[in-house]
């Protein structure tokens, strides 16, 4: 597991590769959320300047710093108004999954040169891009606010259960966040990331 600022033994090349991968992964992830919401009829992301590939527009103090320090985190959540969607439940799911799908696409594209033996001197930075985008995809699928998986879960539930889950999230936000950290630091979240990384690249580690 890569923890860039906690693992002092990593080289400058790995750290710079991590910064590049983080910039690409987070920016595209949040842009895709914003763009998909905009396409669904919600102008909120555009009015807040989020339909952009400018990395600074998507920087989140806590989430981005956690990604840099601990290896797991998120970008600045895109503000949306589901009531403005043409199909609120379906579009909310599509918007929530747009970022995850974008990270998986980036991971696959970056892994192809490695898998085909064409990456050469770029193997390490490409591997970091694959790894970080897999982290973003897997981590954001966890059904805990503010992660995308929580929105998907609520929209898939019947309305009565949806409201109960929403209330549960609101009342237990701090405990859910602690549970999220436990999943990270016990390595449970890292397991599927490592398996997907090996499957896509053929490498056991970076």
Describe the structure.
With 206 residues, the chain is mainly alpha-helical. Helix content is 66%, strand content 0%. Helix 1 (12-39) crosses helix 5 (123-140), helix 4 (88-115) runs antiparallel to helix 5 and helix 4 packs across helix 6. The N and C termini lie close together (9 Å).
Secondary-structure element series: HHHHHHHHH
- Helix and strand content put the structural class at mainly alpha
Shape type: globular
What level of helicity do the residues show? 55-70%
N-to-C CA distance = 9 Å
Largest sheet: none
Figure out the total of helices: 9
Radius of gyration: 17 Å
The overall average pLDDT, rounded, is 89
| Low-pLDDT residue intervals, each spanning 5 or more residues | none
Beta strands, count: 0
Could you name the key traits of this structure?
206 residues; mainly alpha; 66% helix
Topology:
Elements (H helix, E strand, L loop, with lengths): L11 H28 L4 H4 L13 H10 L17 H28 L7 H18 L7 H9 L2 H13 L1 H13 L4 H12 L5
How do you describe this structure in short?
With 206 residues, the chain is mainly alpha-helical.
């Amino acid at each position: 597991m890569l923890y860039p600022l906690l693992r002092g033994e990593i080289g400058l090349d790995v750290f710079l590769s991590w910064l590049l991968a983080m910039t690409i992964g987070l920016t595209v992830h949040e842009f895709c959320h914003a763009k998909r919401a905009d396409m669904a009829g919600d102008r909120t992301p555009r009015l807040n300047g989020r339909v952009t590939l400018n990395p600074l527009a998507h920087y989140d103090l806590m989430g981005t710093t956690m990604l840099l320090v601990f290896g797991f985190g998120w970008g600045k959540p895109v503000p949306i108004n589901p009531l403005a969607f043409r199909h609120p439940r379906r579009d909310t799911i599509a918007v929530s999954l747009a970022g995850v799908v974008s990270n998986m696409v980036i991971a696959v594209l970056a892994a192809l040169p490695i898998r085909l033996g064409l990456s050469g001197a770029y193997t390490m930075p490409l591997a970091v891009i694959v790894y970080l985008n897999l982290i973003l995809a897997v981590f954001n699928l966890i059904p805990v606010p503010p992660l995308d998986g929580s929105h998907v879960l609520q929209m898939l539930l019947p309305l009565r259960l949806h409201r109960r889950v929403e209330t549960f999230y609101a009342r237990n936000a701090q405990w859910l966040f602690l549970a999220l950290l436990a999943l990270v630091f016990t390595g449970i979240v890292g397991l599927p990331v490592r398996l997907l990384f090996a499957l896509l690249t053929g490498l056991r580690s970076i």
